[in-house]
Each structure stands twice: as C-alpha cells, then as structure tokens.
C-alpha cells in the first residue's frame, strides 16, 4: 500500500508541476493536458535511452570482459551470438512499460498507444534474444563429442518455429486486444489448412525424432540414394531439408523425411568397422586351365608363401594315391593339383601376408559361375585404408601383382580380340613417312 501511495503522490506532484507550467504559459485546460502527455512521453523516451545505454555498458562491455577472461567456452558462444547485446534492448521497453503509469494519464489515448508499443517492443526483443540463444546453444552443442552421433539442428529449427508462432499469436492478440487463448480456440477451424502448409515441417520433425532416437544418420555419414542421384557426405540434417555434398563437390538438398521413406545406403558401418571392401574379379581363360606337372611343382616350390600349401597338398595327394593303389583303382581318378587351384591358394596367401589387408575381416578368393567370357576368380577382402585415394592405390597394387603372376601358373586372363591391324597400319604409315626422300633440289 505504501508503494502505491508513493506512486500516486509522485503522479499528483508531477501533474501539479505540469499544470502550473501550463497555467504560467496561459494555456487552457485541454492544451495543458496535451502538454502533460507530450512532456511525459519525452521524459519516458529520455529515460528509455538512458536505460538502454546503461544496460549496454554493463552487458556489452563489463560482461564481455568477464567472458573474455573466463576459462569456459559456452559464454563465448553467447557473446558471439549477440545474446548480451540484444538483451540490453529489453531495458528501454521495460522503462516505457513501467514509466507510463507515472508520467502519462491512464485514460488517455497516448497511454494506450505507449502501453501497446512497449509490450510489442518487449515481445520482439525477447524473441530476438531467444533466437540468438538457440544459435549459441547449437554452436555449444556442436563443440561436444555428441554432435556427430546425435545432431540437434532439427530440434533447434523446431524451437525457432515454435518461438515464431508464439510471437505471431501474441502480437495478433495484442493488436486485437484479445487473449491468446481466444485465438487458439479458433485454431481448430484452420487445422486442415495448417497441416497442408506445414506438411514438410511436420514430416521433417517426425523424421528428425526418429533419426535422432535410432541414430540412423549423423552429420558426416556417407550415403547413397540412387533415386535422387545422391552419393556423398551429409553436411546437415535440418528440420525440413538434408544437405549432402556429393563427391563431385555439388550440393544436393533433400526432404528430411526422405531419409526414412526412401531406400538409402549408409556407409557408416564401413567407417566404424575399420576396413573398406575390395570386391573385384578377374576373368580367367578356361583354355589355360590344366593339371600341374613336375616342372610346375618345382617352379612353385620356390615361392615362399606357397610352400605350406604345397606341402599339405602333397601329403593329402600321397595319402589319396595310396588308398587308390590298395583298392587297385585307376590313378587317373585320383586328386591332382591344378594351376587354377594353386593360383587361388597363392592369392589367398598373398592377401593374408599383405600389410594393407584387414586381418580381422573376411578375406577369401572364390570362383564364380563360368560365363562366355571365362571363369571369374573373385577377390573378396577388406583394405585397412579407408581414404578413397589411398584405397584405390591398394586395390590397384593387389591386382597389378595378381595379374602379373598369372603366367607363373600358366594362366591367361580372358580378353576380347581387338583389331590390331589398324594400329599396325598407322605405325607403318608413320614409319614410311619418315623414310620418304625429300623433294628439295
């Protein structure tokens, strides 16, 4: 009661001073009231300016100094996002809102205008502060180790949308002089329209929750989506769109919900496994397949990594031959070494000893179904090198060696016969042109 009494006394005293000043100037009662309103408004504007400068000095300079010398980094993000600077703008609105009761006549039109303007101004400034705080929160979270595992960009955008909708409702309710609940009660009538307008936003929000909860995709994941011709790394998972940088450095923008409604290949498992798959076959000319003879065995015995295989096979073949002899069966029906089988064992041993082949993942050499282009001999293993350029180098080195070793095992790679006559003719023409005598006299 004492505070109310003091406020009333201050208002009465101020009104008396302004009335005396108007009477001194010889103004009538109506003109004196108008002078009262403008003088009060002028004082309010000056007080608001002073409040803003004082708050700016404290928050932008004093607080900024404390932030600069602090050991934590989250306050630096708040400073960079402009949270403190924008918060200082709230003070003029508060000065107008609380000062109007002292300096303005409550029933006047100017009082109502200043009151509405102050409320709208405070709403807009608080909205700006909250938006800056959300930006700072996102930057703070990105600096943590959880950022790649569970991005929050979609949730930040949902927060921005909710704050914007709240501002729109509050501004409309203030302009109409109605309660926000009154506006919300009529929202059901246009719910269908809102569902159409915000369809992508709603679908994206639901998709964002599923992606974050199930850890389906993270920033930095390599994905492939043939339908959208996407093959690259996820840059950002937003509320409504996903940005992917393809390997040709183009940027693809996809709807967020497409990640859960379309077929997507995620290569994250490869990165987490520590290896990158090599799966490629060589077409072997089947006319070069044959049994191994003594000369072949002597030659292959000189290959160190192949000696354990040959020793074990020699023992197995001798045992099999002994059984056939005891049964008086023809030796031709017994087991024999082949060049293709020995070559396959050599490749397996070579991959086992290769320093860049992952030892903890599947590594095998297998035959595929023969075709009219030969017998496919497939190498299936994983490279320890995941970097694209170095990985291609490892894969090329392996096949360079394998193809070069084929003649050692009397094997040929299948290759379609090309017309080499054109090249021979061209070489002959070029050579003949150099041998023609000059026409110089």
TrEMBL record:
InterPro entries: LSM_dom_sf, MscS_beta-dom_sf, MscS_channel_2nd, YbdG
Localization, UniProt: Membrane
Chief location category: membrane
Keywords assigned by UniProt, alphabetized: Membrane, Transmembrane, Transmembrane helix
Domain (Mechanosensitive ion channel MscS) ranges: 200-268
Source species, domain of life: Bacteria
Taxonomic source organism: Glaciecola siphonariae
Keyword Transmembrane helix annotated: yes
Protein name: Mechanosensitive ion channel family protein
Transmembrane segments: 38-61, 82-99, 111-130, 151-173, 179-198
